[in-house]
Amino acid sequence: MSKEITSREQDYSQWYNDLIIKGGLADYSAVRGCMVIKPYGFALWENMRDVLDKMFKDTGHQNAYFPLFIPKSFLSKEAAHIEGFAKECAVVTHYRLKTDPDGGGLIVDPDAKLEEELIIRPTSETIIWNTYKTWIQSYRDLPLLINQWANVVRWEMRTRLFLRTAEFLWQEGHTAHATANEAIAETRQMLDIYAEFAESWMAMPVIKGVKSINERFAGAVDTYCIEALMQDGKALQAGTSHFLGQNFAKAFDVKFSDKENKLDYVWATSWGVSTRLIGALVMAHSDDDGLVLPPKLAPIQVVIVPIFKGDDQKQLIDEKVRAFVKELKQAGVKVKYDDNENNRPGWKFAEYEMKGVPLRIAIGARDIANNVVEVVRRDTKEKMSMPIEGLTVNIIKLLDTIQESIYNKAFAYRSTHITPADTWEEFMDLLDNKGGFVSAHWDGTPETEDKIKELSKATIRCIPLNNVEEAGSCILTGNNSTERVLFARAY
RNA sequence: CGGGGCGUAGCGUAGCCCGGUUAUCGCGCCUGCUUUGGGAGCAGGAGGUCGCAAGUUCGAAUCUUGCCGCCCCGACCA
């Protein structure tokens, strides 16, 4: 055993790091807080990206690309926005290096100071709205539905692989609309798309909700989110969709003429998900033996391991395998035949378990004699013997079963981890000893939320969209409340 | 930014307290043979600015000072 994984029980964050590193998703880099996404991890991201990209395009969005650099003055145009991001911006101040006249390498050339510093985008609202100003004059230019796949930089104090890195990859949608209602509908539509993606593709149940004022995006009127629950009982914000009102239109003076030739500011949304989703995926399903990936996103869905003695057997196996691999591939299954002779079967079994490949097929002389293969599920470790005849259909069925099964497992965990609390003692006890979401009354004020956060380290994850009205009293202050909200400790 | 930990071969480590020939062990790597149904065995081999810099000393991985980097826990955040 050359690749030991720390167990969840022993040290949950070490377990998480082990999975990322030993599962081959990413590596630490020479740059603080920045990671290298390795081919296997990037393949996972590409799969996620492709699905989302199609969903965006199917709802009328187009991709574009805006600059990495943002003039400093742009950021300061929207007051709340700069407030939120100023503390974590990387700043470009010079455009040239030169050799040190006193010897010893390169120095920043003091003569090459920029007149205006450039910020490396932490998010692109400002540069995009500055551009939209020139693109939008009339209601005929609306709606403007644009998405960009990009990297952004936020100089975080403390980073964690995938969950919070100084540079990360994401998509950011930025739309402009003629009416508030249309913009709100867009915000909600994109939230639904994110939820659909999380649940149907990542097999990760999420709660759709709206953020409290404290947790709202800097510059938004309303922030909608999907919240997921990780195996250690902590919540994770998996995606956000913001209704920006006319804040950015006003800050960047983006007006349009409506049909009556009246000038008005446009209504805006922005929405994004990031490589953080990979972290969410890892923590949602994996176990102490390694990653568990949902079949619909797994870079490899089926791995085939031959077991043989001598070239004669190998040839027989190759022949059999070639036939059904072809069929699997034609059916759209992502299959890998690992006949690399450098590693033995046992090594491969462990390796692909580590990498979370949903199904493993082993085939040896024994199986060929019976015209079967051994199929093993990654999620349950269940071993079964399957006839080669009709294998493709059964594999596809099994992949669907796994997809559903890991969703159900995650859903069951989450269901038992949304717990109501009616007293402060109960509230704290749940957070300390059970984890998960705690459903509790809150008096609706930011001050109370701050106080609760200070006392419990829990924040309001969201006010669920499907909330029912219920009279009650605030968990902390006892003041009147009309609905419960979800609290949790979060990543 | 506060607290803790760690920097020795690609990875993981011993040695450091108490300075002294050629820096330990495992994995991995290379060559050969035997192996192959749960991380193979044997034999041989390659691989090191001991994080960096200065100091103490006849002599520093080991002692002193300074610096750098990374990880973990917190506060900030996706």
Structure notes:
This protein is of the alpha+beta class and 491 residues long. It folds into three domains: 12-71 and 127-285, BirA Bifunctional Protein, domain 2, CATH 3.30.930.10; 302-402, Rossmann fold; 418-488, Translation Initiation Factor IF3 (2-Layer Sandwich). The protein is 35% helix and 28% strand. The protein has 14 helices and 27 strands. The protein has an eleven-stranded mixed beta sheet, sandwiched between helices. A five-stranded mixed beta sheet has the order 18-17-19-20-21, sandwiched between helices. Strands 4-8-5 form a three-stranded antiparallel beta sheet. β17 (302-307), α9 and β18 form a beta-alpha-beta unit. It starts with 11 loop residues before the first helix and ends with a strand. The relative contact order is 0.11. It binds one RNA strand of 78 nucleotides through residues 1-3, 11, 13-14, 17, 28, 30, 32, 84, 87-88, 123, 152, 154, 156-158, 163-164, 168, 170, 217, 236-240, 272-274, 276, 305-309, 341, 343-351, 353, 362, 364-367, 374, 457, 491.
* Intertermini distance: 31 Å
User: Which strand-content bin applies to the residues?
Assistant: 25-35%
**What is the level 1 CATH name of the largest domain?**
Alpha Beta
Share of helix among residues?
25-40%
Query: In total, how many beta strands?
Result: 27
Proper CATH architecture of the largest domain = 2-Layer Sandwich
**Any idea what the CATH superfamily of the largest domain is called?**
Bira Bifunctional Protein, Domain 2
C-alpha Rg, in Å?
26 Å
Unreliable residue runs: none
* Rounded average pLDDT: 93
Number of domains: 3
The structure class reads: alpha+beta
* Major β-sheet profile: 11 strands, mixed
Number of helices: 14
Question: Widest sheet: strand order?
Answer: 3-9-10-16-13-12-11-24-27-23-22
**What name does CATH use for the topology of the largest domain?**
BirA Bifunctional Protein, domain 2
Q: Outline, from the CA principal axes?
A: globular
